[in-house]
C-alpha cells in the first residue's frame, strides 16, 4: 500500500510539473514598428499612421501615448496634429514575461503661409492717409496672411514684415510678389529690402539688402538718404521736412483730408527716416494733377496686378551683388519724394506680400 501511494504521488508530481510547463508565460514580445527611425517630420493637419507587428506571435497588451497621455490600445495608431510643436509618441507591448518599448519624436511644422504672417515694424512718413483707416497702427494687420491695404506716407515711410518660412531664392525666376494699387499710367514706387535669418534666431537682426531695381545707379538715385519730419503746430498745418543734403519742403495739406498728417502715435516732435531715394524722372512736370509712370522693374506699387521681385537682385551697402539662399523678412519703403498736386504726396501702398512659389 505504501508503495502504491508513493507511485501515485510521483505521478501526481510529474503531472503537476507538466501542467506548470504548459502554463508557463509566453516569451517576452518581439515587436517591429512600421516606422524604424527614432524621429520624423510632419506638418499640421498631416495624419501620421503607425502599426505594431508582434513578430513572435505572443499575446500582448498594446499601448500608445502622446506626450505622456494614453491614446490607444490597438496595434494600429493614427495621429493628426493640429498644432506645430514636438510630440513624443511612446509605444509599449506588454505580457507576463516583459515589455517591448519604442519612442518616436515627431516634429510638426506649421503649413507655410504664402502671405507674410508677422508685422515687425510700421513707421510711415507723414501723408494725407496717415491717421486714417489705411495709415494707423492697426492697418498692417490687414495684410497678414492675406491681402489688405496699408499706406506708407511720403518718402521714407516703411513697413517691415516676416514670413513664417524662408522664401527660397529660385534660380532664374522671381520669388516674391508685392501687391499695390498702381495703374498703367500711375505708380508710386517703393524700394524693397530683404533679410535672410542668417543667425537662425528668428529675429530681424541680420543685414538688410536692397533689391536693385531698374533705377539703381541712375541720375537722381541716392543711397543713405535721410529726411527729418517735424510735427506741425496744428492739425491744419503742413508738415515740414529737411533732408541730409540741405533741402527742405512740405507735405502739403489738401481739402480732402483734414486730419493731422503727422503720425499721432509717434511721440517725438521730429523723426528721421533713412533709405534709398529713387529718381523723380517718372513724374510729369507742370501744375495741377501730375502723373507718375511706372519704372521698368524692381519696385513695389509700380505696376498693375502686383510686382514680382527676384531675390537675386539683392545688393550690399557698397552696391555689390549678394547671394542669398532665401529670405525671411522684407521691408518696403516709399521711394520718391514728390507732391503730385491734387492727388497729394506720392505714397507707396502695400496690398499684400507673398511667396510666389506657394501661389503658383
From TrEMBL:
Protein name as it appears in the record: Cell surface protein
Signal peptide segment: 1-20
Native species: Pontibacter arcticus
UniProt keyword annotations, A-Z: Signal
InterPro entries: Ig-like_fold (IPR013783), PKD_3 (IPR041696), PKD_dom_sf (IPR035986)
Keyword Signal: yes
Keyword hit for Cell division: no
Superkingdom of this protein's organism: Bacteria
Residue ranges occupied by any Bacteroidetes PKD-like domain in the UniProt entry: 29-94
Pfam families (UniProt xref): PKD_3 (PF16820)
